[in-house]
């Protein structure tokens, strides 16, 4: 049985961001992971350029390459990715695969949901329309109750099949496999799918034989056909086979309904070449990072897109000092976060003791105490996160985010403000005690584990946590928060 992992980007936010990207004409590149070490390189490049993208793995990358498993990719994602600049996606889970074989797809979709993917893709493109609709509707019924978005494919993007394709110009002229607009409308209405992958001229890169290492054909896109699909479907559209498409067509596609663009060959081949040349995974990772940077900056022009998209969907997010009367809302955030986000690492008994140990009155006391600095994150009038600093000890007492806003960058923003306050108070080192499920979050932000400790709650219930510290410096602190009078 697969443990249900915390989602790193709330799927509700992911859906909003994709719709915002569609409205604003911003591409969301989606990078495939045929080799597990590529996750770190992709995540690093997205974060470096503040570009929002998806990190994804398809079934064929599990069985024909070295991605190992969905859970293995998810673990690498949790370790290295910044949820502000990425989301984890389960790509092509076919009903009939590229070799013409039936696939037991339900366990794969279930694993993707359980492992924290914000979105999953069922590929029924080799099925008759009615069966594709039925299967996709079933996946929607599995995913939507868990808050997970669903992508499906209608039409056929060729290239993964065994054997040579007909000449590309012949394929394009015949519109072989192109998605039919009326079918797209019916498909979306009957399935409730969130995103639709369409066929408008792109082709997948080869995955075997000599062609696997060769440059892809310079594909074209039928933009007029795309416009018809955009108007018929009414949902964000996806372009598979994104590598190798002529630049002018990419630009026009983004302007006319394509949001998510899948990229495989353009980053797989640099990894394979460099690994063959040097034998060093680190060199291959550097080649992937460079390729992602080029695509982000020069091909899709999405450097800085994370900030733009979060501004579009984030609502009015403000950080301020907690004030009398906030205790009830702060306690609610704490209780909900412990119940929903800590259950992957703690027992029901531990969670109940943890929640019962605090009350709204205790938070009111902290709000009014001169020894505590309690900051809250507020969105549209609702407190969605808080952090508390012990101003005498230079210790962060608490940092909790509402589960509905997990992965939105609120936690790191609160933490940076608390660190800035500690620095201005004269502390050059700051400490905290991390819940086991939050260890990776703090490590990514520069904290170092110092050892395990036990919190003992009333009734003698013990809860293991990790003591952590971080060296503070001016470079770590946001400029607006370096003076105490600037604190919210």
Distance between the termini: 45 Å
Q: Could you tell me the radius of gyration in angstroms?
A: 24 Å
The class by helix and strand makeup works out as alpha/beta
CATH topology of the largest domain: TIM Barrel
Name the assembly state. single chain
Unreliable segments of 5+ consecutive residues: 1-8, 205-212, 474-488
What would CATH call the architecture of the largest domain?
Alpha-Beta Barrel
Strand content: 15-25%
CATH class of the largest domain: Alpha Beta
Number of DSSP E strands: 15
Main beta sheet strand tally, sense and closure: 8 strands, parallel, barrel
Inertia-based shape:
elongated
Strand line-up of the largest beta sheet: 1-2-3-4-5-6-7-8
CATH superfamily of the largest domain: Aldolase class I
Instruction: Work out the helicity level.
Output: 40-55%
Overall mean pLDDT stands at 87
Count of helices? Answer: 18
Question: What's the domain count?
Answer: 2
What's the helix and strand layout?
Blueprint: H1 11-24, E1 28-32, H2 38-48, E2 53-57, H3 59-63, H4 70-80, E3 86-94, H5 105-114, E4 119-123, H6 129-143, E5 149-154, H7 168-174, H8 181-191, E6 195-198, H9 223-233, E7 237-239, H10 247-255, E8 258-263, H11 265-278, H12 281-299, H13 305-313, E9 317-321, H14 327-341, H15 348-356, H16 360-368, E10 372-379, E11 382-390, E12 395-401, H17 410-424, E13 429-435, H18 439-444, E14 448-457, E15 461-471
Parallel strand pairs: 1-2, 1-8, 2-3, 3-4, 4-5, 5-6, 6-7, 7-8, 12-13
Antiparallel strand pairs: 9-10, 10-11, 11-12, 13-15, 14-15
Helix pairs in contact: 1-13, 2-4, 2-12, 6-8, 8-9, 11-12, 14-15, 14-16
